[in-house]
Design a protein that fits this description.
Largest sheet: 6 strands, mixed
Radius of gyration: 15 Å
CATH topology: STM4215-like
CATH class: Alpha Beta
Shape: elongated
Order of helices and strands: HHEEEEEHEEE
Number of strands: 8
Structural class: alpha+beta
Helix content: 10-25%
């Protein structure tokens, strides 16, 4: 769900502890909601993927959904693998057991797992943090 990606993006770029460790693209922190990223972006960078799972969370009186989104942190081999791990840990801390504001929805607490090693091409470091978020649509 695009709104979830936007909410995660907003939370990440508002967190100076994370953005201070990231590369830049067009003078902004290198945080993307699409892939592939622009080739001129510097690392480390974050890619917030589409939801990998999206299930109903409906009750008798409300309509909701539970999404699972992978947030990946990458850098090139000549970059800094420690920074990739550090950013991944900060992303996990940002979302684990934390409320996330999604436009048009109220949110329960998010739950973050990882980071785990990301499958990558040679010469790229990567970690993935998976975030589960349950939201109830506002009336």
């Amino acid at each position: 769900m695009r709104r979830v990606q936007q909410a995660f993006h907003a939370a990440i770029v508002d967190e100076p502890a994370i953005t201070s460790l990231l590369g830049v693209f067009e003078l902004k922190p290198a945080v993307f909601t699409q892939s592939p990223i622009p080739g001129v972006a510097t690392g480390p960078y974050i890619v917030i993927g589409d939801s990998v799972a999206d299930t109903a969370f409906d009750t008798k009186t409300s309509v909701g959904r539970t999404t699972l989104t992978d947030i990946a942190i990458y850098d090139v081999e000549s970059g800094n693998p420690t920074a990739v791990q550090d950013v991944a840990e900060l992303v996990r801390d940002l979302f684990h057991r934390s409320p996330v504001t999604v436009e048009g929805y109220g949110a329960f607490l998010a739950d973050a797992t990882g980071p785990i090693e990301a499958p990558t091409a040679d010469q790229i470091y990567g970690r993935i943090v998976s975030v589960t978020l349950t939201s109830i649509r506002r009336s």
